Amino acid sequence: MPEVDAARSFRKASVRDAEVDGRRVLLRADLNVPLEGGEVADDTRIRASLPTIELLRDRGASIVLVSHLGRPKGPDPSLSMAPVAERLGELLDTPVKLAPAVVGDEVEKMASELAPGEVLLLENSRFEEGEKKNDPALAEALAGLAGVYVNDAFGTAHRAHATTEGVAHLLPGYAGLLLEQEVEQLTAVRDDPQRPLIVVLGGAKVTDKLGVIDRFLGFAEEILIGGAMCFSFFKAEGRDTGNSLVEDEGVDAARRVLAEAEKSDTMLELPEDLVLGRELDAGTETRELNGVDVPEGWMGLDVGDNTSANFAKRIARAGTVFWNGPMGAFEVQPFDAATRAVAEAVAAAPGHTVVGGGDSVAALHKFGLADSVDWISTGGGASLELIEGRDLPGVEALQDA
What we know:
By secondary structure, the protein is α/β, with parallel strands linked by helices. The chain has two domains: 6-178, 3-Layer(aba) Sandwich (Rossmann fold), CATH 3.40.50; 185-388, Rossmann fold, CATH 3.40.50.1260. It has helices at 6-9, 44-58, 82-92, 105-112, 136-143, 162-166, 177-191, 206-216, 230-236, 248-263, 305-316, 337-348, 358-366, 381-388, 393-396; strands at residues 24-28, 35-36, 39-40, 62-66, 96-98, 119-121, 148-151, 173-175, 197-201, 222-225, 267-269, 274-277, 286-289, 299-303, 320-324, 352-356, 375-376. Helix 7 (177-191) packs across helix 14 (381-388) and helix 11 packs parallel to helix 12 (337-348).
């Protein structure tokens, strides 16, 4: 994956410049991975954290690693970091110690006994009620475990939590390699893309992508809309949507976007054909619709072949592509065809390609195309907020370069 000139777009202190030899580093990583049968089912996020971990180890630091996992409401053995510690140890080829808690006397003792190059993983940070509340006492206890703070958890950088924002005000704070690259790549798309810029948006809700649409309307050459969110646009145009998923709150927003697109230099492209089903099920009755008015009793579950071919042709001539959101219900065949076609087009595009959002990334992996994209963002909400132009608390709290 290519690097973007750090001097151009990143203004925070980098872990590359931190003095860490012989020091303990509190490293916030995004190790929020799926578990299956008590084991890590997908280690993509763990692997994404390895460059920063290895850099710190190579420079003589001992590492106190902290992350959340899932959405526990207090301590929950099923969401322990134990499987993560085991998998991380395998990837690093060195044992990773697991602390019994996030903070406390035993944790402090384990941290103090770390030798250079050793790694201690704290328990799930969301076992602590003060994490999401950004509790100053929790931040202070975390800060007491180390002398330097590094944030490499871009996926949570939009949250002002104790481990992402609070502790950064108490220790010298640096950006990890992944966080740095995420900000570089997404800022380049937002502010200085190679032209033409083609933005491909899908998923269920217009309101989830409204900030991105507003950011790029009048800035991007084209915005291509697929996924269930297209039905809010069709309803705003007065078209029939049948039993399709329509976000009612998104209809007025879609109507405004359509009006603004008419006055802008950006071409807003909606689907021209659809694949319908009676219900969202692999065995359901299906039909192709040459048009977009959905009859009663049918649901639009994918965009059609003509739309896929049109989108692919536009993507192929892009200088920069930003894709967020699937074109249809890609988890269920046969409604994965358009998402596959877009994924293949993005993977083959000669321009700079950036993909964000969990479903889009999952589609790339499903179709075996992840290695053919220039940058895959690890942050869902964080990537959208950065693209929209919002400040991310976990980035803003770090030291300036």
